[in-house]
Amino acid sequence: MPRRATRAIHNPFPAPDRAIAFPIYQTAAFAAPDSDGFAQINDYGSEAFFYTRYDNPTLRNVETKLAALEHAEAALTFASGMTAITTTLMGLLRAGDTIAASRTLYGGTVTFLRDYAPRYGIHVKLLDEADLYEVEKHVPQAKAVYFETPTNPRCDCLSIRKVVAAAKRIGALVVKDNTFASPINQNPLDLGVDLVLHSATKYLGGHSDLTAGAVMGSRERLAGLFGARKVFGGILSPNDAFLLDRSLKTLELRMQQHNRSAQALAEHFAHHPKVQAVYYPGLPSTPGHAVAAEQMTGFGGMMCIALADLQAARTLCDGLKIGMNVAHLGSAETLVSIPVLTSHSMLSADELAGAGLSAGMVRISVGLEDTDDLIADFDQALSRL
Ligand SMILES: Cc1ncc(COP(=O)(O)O)c(C=O)c1O
Question: What pLDDT score was predicted for residue 373?
């Protein structure tokens, strides 16, 4: 079996006319040869295509590559990371079910779990890391356990092995958002997770020119979610699927540079007098380092630094000349953001404290620029504090 870099480049299906780039099937529907040709219209993975909200060849091409990257049997793509998350959870759970989730999650996911899931009768219990490792004691009725690692934005690293072991003790399904790591640095399905989610808008897309989401897992589990994707309707567009396919060809190469540059920058910040704390899984001084070393094959391009206060965070973000102040991550450009003003602005003071977030924190998505240029840029901006 070819390795992942090879599988991310070569199309799993032959493209018409031996095209190298798999074409965009820019069509809303497909004609059947005759009325009997609709026999498979509701089947997951049917040979024929019928309607793009159900399935489309450009999507199936990229989904096959995404599945290979996460060591999964199959993948489904969505119009955004949030659509992948909400469709997966709504597809798995029903009124009366309980989901146990980590407190340290992307703000949009927290909002869905806090404000929307309960409207549909789904009970949500948010747990600290230690309680998640003993979910059987705290939420024995949980049907699903949901978490991220490294977490957004502080890059805390939770033990996948411990979460999976606890969930299995009560027969709960384990769903994990792997956006921050990317499939190059961490493969949760290998550690017993049932379903992996990605905001493909981030590293998988990598160029800030598409919005997409994906879920990966066994073919059997995805068959159920295929039905949910059809009715909720949040499928990826063929245009964005094409761009995502283009991006996957360089994913491994890009992640290697993200990993290298982030490690260098984190080590630099660790000795900087204006930086009070650095949260980067590759730094031995970061609490989650040992866990990260056990379950990650690379430490990623994301980090968080703590400065004195919100004003210091603003001065840094507004003073960068290369780094850009953007509520986004995983791009070729270095992007910084202040979580309390952006990704986590919808959290209450108590929720922020529960997730260990303070106003002086800056999330950094280290891009693909020259590493020394980035260090010089952060140094000149930090010198303004
Ligand atoms: C960890 C994580 N998961 C999910 C999402 C949602 O993804 P999207 O913006 O593609 O809907 C984000 C967005 O920032 C994220 O950071």
Answer: 98
Which atom of ligand 1 has the smallest separation from the CA of 84?
11
- The CATH topology of domain 4-248 is Aspartate Aminotransferase; domain 2 (3.40.640)
Distance 14 CA to ligand 1 centre (A): 32
Half-sphere exposure of 96 (CA within 13 A, CB side): 0
Q: What is the pLDDT of residue 44?
A: 96
The C-alpha atoms of residue 93 and residue 209 are separated, in whole angstroms, by: 32
Boundaries of every domain in the chain: 4-248, 252-382
**355 pLDDT more than 90:** no
Q: Which three-class secondary structure state does DSSP give residue 278?
A: strand
What pLDDT does 346 receive?
86
Mean pLDDT on 188-192: 98
Q: Is residue 347 very low, low, confident or very high in pLDDT (cuts 50, 70, 90)?
A: confident
CA distance 243 to 251: 13
CA angle 285, 278, 265 (to 5 degrees): 100
Question: Looking at ligand 1, which residue's alpha carbon is closest to its atom 7?
Answer: 81
Please give the span between the terminal C-alpha atoms of the chain, in angstroms, as a whole number.
Answer: 53
- Binning the chain into helix, strand and coil, the percentages to the nearest 5 are 40, 15, 45
Number of helices (H), then strands (E), belonging to the chain: the values are 14, 12
CATH fold for the domain made of 252-382: Aspartate Aminotransferase, domain 1 (3.90.1150)
Mean pLDDT of all residues belonging to the chain: 97
Confidence grade of residue 351 (pLDDT, cut at 50, 70, 90): confident
Check: CB of residue 192 under 8 Å from CB of residue 202.
no
pTM strictly above 0.70: yes
**pLDDT tens-digit readout, 58-73:** 999 999 999 999 999 9
Choice from 87, 110, 113, 202 to test ligand 1 binding pocket (greatest atom count within 8 A of CB)? 202
Pocket test for ligand 1, best of 82, 104, 195, 236 (most atoms within 8 A of CB): 82
CA distances from 83 to 80, 200, 233 (A): 5, 11, 9
